[in-house]
């Protein structure tokens, strides 16, 4: 028997699907989020770099404007002090006010201090040949100056810690122009040289906050969308795959009836593993069952061969007995026919002599002799049909005329029972058939119809011609025949067990309809009956226009 296994749902493969899709989705979205985050950070840093570059240009333009006007004079105050490195750092105005000469360098430093106080940004000027020691470059600025003096680089930047804060540091070159040479001629500069660099410090707190906020938004949105995608994939997969798999497992469980050692094997994997193992097991069971069936079939075949041999022997014996029976009927019919013919002839002679004192007894002898002669003739006819020795005398004739002759032959019997005989044949055709055989068929059908018709009843013979053959029907108004007997009544020696029929069938041989069937089939036709109890019977037979000869039928 096939093993039974656990059928508590189908969560294992669905759980695997959920985990795998979640991991794949998480990795995919993680990579995408990382890429987007990097791109966004690059974009923000690019904006900061552009902001620093724009600030550098603004400072440079401001310095150029001051340099073009020689210097900037501002009233002397505690915040604005003279530059000791400039000649004539102080100027007395006509209004008696002392003004301080502001150089581009001092202006740059003042603006930086002002911006630093407002937590915006800061910047400073530096040079390797500085006049002011406070403008001494650090390592990054020294490296930047070397780069600017050896290549056409517009600026370099990096992120660093400055005074405990993360800043974006941008270093760009300061090139010497004609106005700058007025103060820096002694340093050996000429127009177009890199006289120093400008370091700009932009706080990264706001940029970092934007980057972190964008990362959080991307992470939250990505996780939400990933979860939605996993659910979106799982729901139809559950309906399309996992539920049918569960139904398959349930059907598999119904095919099993007991637990075996293979149960643990079937339950170690997921549902697909169970189904695969079950298929292998089922294949093995089917192979074993197939082999067992083959053994049983082989044994049954041997028994069947023996039975067939016994049946063949019995059939041959039955055929031998049937031939012996047919020979017996044929022989006894021949033996009876001669003395019966003699008795009939002698009876006819006595009936014609008026000297007979008891003619009614001779009439009884004549009727029974005629009946015996008919029975003997039927036996001889059926013996020839059964033995396949029936010879048809095919000739062109009118079936309507044969039907009229058959009606005339049965007219006396019909008058005795007050039965009307009617022939319906709208037309007549000449075709080939054995007139004697079909005459006998119609006579037998008419005789039976008259026998079972009530007094003053009507027996109708109808002939219908078609394109392929002729159909003849004999209809009576008798008690009818149940449907269960419609086939069996055409067997030899078969009679319906009915009290109303026993009285009418007394003395019947029971082979009249069998002879009719044999004669019709000898014409390649067929015979049948339509009847219901209490509604009469209609016996019909069909004869095709072309009738094969005996040799053709073989």
UniProtKB/TrEMBL annotation:
Catalytic activity, reaction form: ATP + protein L-histidine = ADP + protein N-phospho-L-histidine
GO cellular component terms, semicolon-separated: membrane raft; plasma membrane
Organism annotation: Desulfomonile tiedjei (strain ATCC 49306 / DSM 6799 / DCB-1)
Coiled-coil portions: 245-331
Claim: Phosphoprotein is one of the keywords in the record: yes
TM region positions: 13-36, 216-235
Domain Histidine kinase: 331-547
Protein name: histidine kinase
Enzyme Commission code(s) on record: 2.7.13.3
Record SUPFAM superfamilies: ATPase domain of HSP90 chaperone/DNA topoisomerase II/histidine kinase, Homodimeric domain of signal transducing histidine kinase
InterPro entries tied to this protein: HATPase_C_sf (IPR036890), HATPase_dom (IPR003594), His_kinase_dom (IPR005467), HisK_dim/P_dom (IPR003661), HisK_dim/P_sf (IPR036097), Sensor_HK_Regulatory (IPR050736), Sig_transdc_His_kin-like_C (IPR004358), Tll0287-like_dom (IPR021796)
Keyword check for Cytoplasm: no
CDD domains named in the record: HATPase (cd00075), HisKA (cd00082)
Localisation per UniProt entry: Cell membrane; Membrane raft
A Pfam family the protein falls into: HisKA
């Amino acid at each position: 028997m096939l093993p039974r296994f656990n059928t508590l749902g189908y969560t294992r493969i669905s759980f695997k699907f959920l985990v795998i899709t979640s991991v794949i989705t998480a990795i995919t979205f993680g990579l995408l989020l990382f890429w987007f985050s990097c791109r966004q950070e690059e974009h923000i840093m690019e904006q900061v770099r552009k902001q620093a570059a724009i600030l550098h240009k603004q400072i440079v333009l401001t310095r150029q404007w001051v340099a073009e006007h020689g210097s900037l004079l501002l009233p002397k105050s505690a915040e604005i002090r003279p530059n000791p490195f400039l000649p004539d750092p102080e100027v007395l105005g006509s209004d008696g006010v002392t003004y301080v000469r502001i150089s581009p360098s001092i202006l740059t430093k003042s603006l930086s201090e002002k911006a630093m106080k407002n937590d915006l940004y800061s910047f400073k000027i530096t040079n390797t040949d500085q006049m002011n020691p406070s403008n001494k470059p650090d390592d990054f600025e020294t490296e930047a100056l070397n780069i600017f003096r050896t290549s056409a680089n517009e600026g370099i930047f990096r992120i660093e810690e400055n005074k405990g804060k993360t800043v974006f540091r941008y270093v760009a070159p300061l090139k010497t122009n004609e106005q700058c040479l007025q103060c820096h001629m002694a340093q050996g500069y000429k127009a177009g040289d890199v006289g120093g660099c400008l370091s700009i410090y932009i706080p990264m707190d706001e940029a970092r906050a934007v980057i972190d906020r964008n990362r959080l938004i991307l992470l939250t949105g990505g996780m939400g969308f990933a979860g939605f995608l996993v659910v979106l994939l799982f729901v139809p997969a559950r309906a399309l795959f996992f539920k049918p798999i569960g139904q398959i497992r349930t059907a598999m469980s119904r095919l099993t009836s007991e637990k075996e050692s293979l149960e643990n094997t079937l339950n170690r994997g997921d549902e697909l593993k169970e189904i695969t193992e079950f298929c292998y097991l089922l294949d093995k069971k089917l192979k074993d069952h197939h082999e067992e069936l083959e053994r049983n079939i082989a044994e049954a075949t041997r028994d069947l061969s023996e039975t067939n041999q016994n049946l063949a022997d019995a059939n041959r014996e039955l055929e031998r007995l049937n031939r012996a029976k047919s020979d017996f009927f044929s022989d006894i019919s021949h033996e009876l026919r001669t003395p019966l013919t003699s008795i009939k002839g002698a009876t006819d002679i006595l009936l014609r002599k008026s000297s007979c004192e008891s003619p009614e007894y001779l009439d009884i002898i004549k009727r029974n002799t005629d009946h015996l002669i008919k029975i003997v003739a039927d036996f001889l006819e059926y013996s020839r049909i059964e033995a396949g020795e029936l010879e048809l005398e095919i000739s062109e004739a009118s079936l309507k005329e044969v039907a009229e002759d058959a009606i005339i032959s049965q007219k006396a019997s019909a008058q005795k029972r007050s039965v009307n005989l009617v022939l319906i044949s709208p037309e007549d055709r000449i075709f080939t058939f054995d007139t004697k055989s079909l005459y006998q068929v119609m006579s037998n059908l008419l005789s039976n119809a008259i026998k079972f018709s009530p007094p003053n009843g009507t027996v109708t013979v109808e002939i219908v011609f078609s394109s392929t053959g002729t159909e003849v029907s004999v209809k009576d108004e008798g008690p009818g025949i149940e449907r269960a007997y419609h086939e069996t009544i055409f067997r030899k020696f078969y009679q319906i067990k009915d009290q109303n029929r026993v009285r009418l069938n007394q003395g019947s041989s029971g082979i009249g309809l069998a002879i009719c069937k044999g004669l019709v089939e000898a014409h390649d036709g067929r015979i049948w009956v339509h009847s219901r109890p209490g509604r009469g019977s209609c016996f019909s037979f069909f004869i095709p226009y072309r009738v094969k000869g005996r040799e053709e039928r073989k």
